Amino acid sequence: MENNKTYFTDLITRYLTGEATSDEMITLSGWLKSSAENQKVFEEYQKTFDAIEETKINSTIDVDVEWKNIRSKISKPAEAKKEVKVVTLDTEYKIRPAYFSRFMRVAAIFILIATSAFLLYYYLRSDQPMTQHMVAQVESIESKLPDGTSVTLNSGSTLDYPAKFGKNKRTVALKGEAYFNVVHDATKPFIISAEDVSVEVLGTSFYVNTSSSEGQGEVILTSGRVAVFYKNNPGKITILEPGEKAVFSKTEQKITKTENDETNYMAFKTKDLVFSSTPLCDVIKTLNNVYHSKITLRDKKIANLTLNGNFVNLTLDSVLKIIQEALPVCINKSKGNVIEISSNGSKQ
Questions:
Q1: Which has the higher per-residue pLDDT, 93 or 30?
Q2: Facing residues of 143 across strands?
Q3: For residue 244, what are the β-bridge partners?
Q4: Where are the domains positioned within the chain?
Q5: Do 157 and 136 form a contact (C-beta atoms < 8 A)?
Q6: Residue 153 and residue 174: Cα distance in Å, rounded?
């Protein structure tokens, strides 16, 4: 069936209208990669689809019929006559009936087009749901989207979403770090717009960070299945299975898939931390992200001291006390809530 030309024509149409499932997108991606001719067919369909969509906003007007309707209304006698001052024009300035008729017809067309444009604008404005703006400022926040999807937004992150999702898909825009637990709906794919990259799912749990280190972003899948792709290259899809991670570059069109080795990627949500021979410099990065703190190393020579332990729902002060007991370090708080960690030898 998948070799049938009609099948792929329908599949392209479903993709362009936003109705394709993740499995169908995988099938379409494989078909596009199989030959340059298939890619050309897809591009031609896309051009046609774009042209059709553009044409939909243009109203078809029968000028003669519309002019007759307007003229009949203009020709109706007024219900109440008013005194009108009449100005006689010189012969050379009189408007000929033919020119007047043409002028009025053009005016009628202009009025119809303007009216159509206004109605179209009103329709589009009323059809587009209002955008909601979720912001996590000092602390991470948890909330539910209109479809029941749960989202945990880390501090400094924002999420834009409609007050009501459309008929064909559920699209949100993320800047920063968030964990999603998406309600399954096979008829409406859930799409996260993460700057240049899109993440599409039907129902699953996963983590997205658009502002990871070194100009990269990442997607880590907990359960289900997700498709990750660049918006300008939807035919090239990276599929993640549970336990896998996709790292995408902000400067290059490149997505790298690996096994996830980050144990604390959900710690900002759960406050559960696991360190296994973890260098102190990496421990500090995690603590700053989870507790939104300002911890710095005063002595670089202690950066590679390693920490082991499982910290379950503890306060930052409790974690720091344990670190001070487990490692040969001293922890001091300075102005501006900055926390400095130094070696015991530099303790004052």
A1: 30
A2: 151
A3: 259
A4: 5-55, 63-127, 131-259, 271-346
A5: yes
A6: 9
- Tens of pLDDT, residue by residue over 41-94, are 788 777 766 655 555 544 444 545 554 555 555 445 544 444 444 433 343 434
The tokens for 9 are 């024509």
Quick one: how many helices (H) and strands (E) in the chain? Answer: 8, 19
Fill in the amino acid letter for 269.
K
Q: Give the pTM.
A: 0.60
Q: Where are the beta strands (DSSP E) in 196-327?
A: 197-201, 205-209, 216-223, 226-230, 238-240, 244-249, 255-259, 272-279, 294-297, 306-312
pLDDT, one tens digit per residue, over 127-137 is 445 789 999 98
Q: Token pair 């519309």 is at which residue?
A: 66
Structure tokens at 311: 């910290």
Domain spanning 131-259, CATH architecture: Sandwich (2.60)
Note the pLDDT of residue 94: 41
Q: Buried (b) or exposed (e) across 15-54, using 16+ Cβ within 10 A?
A: bbeeebbbeebebbbebbeeeeebeebbeebeeeeeeeee
CA distance 306 to 275: 9
Q: Is the pLDDT of residue 122 over 80?
A: no
Alpha-carbon span 216 to 60, nearest angstrom: 48
3-state secondary structure 93-152: HCCCHHHHHHHHHHHHHHHHHHHHHHHHHHHHHHHCCCEEEEEECCCCEEEECCCCCEEE
Per the listing, tokens 């001091």 go with 332
CATH of domain 271-346: 3.55.50.30
Q: Which of 11-20, 227-236, 297-306 has the lowest mean pLDDT?
A: 11-20
Phi, psi of 83 (to 5 degrees): -70, 125
Half-sphere exposure of 83 (CA within 13 A, CB side): 0
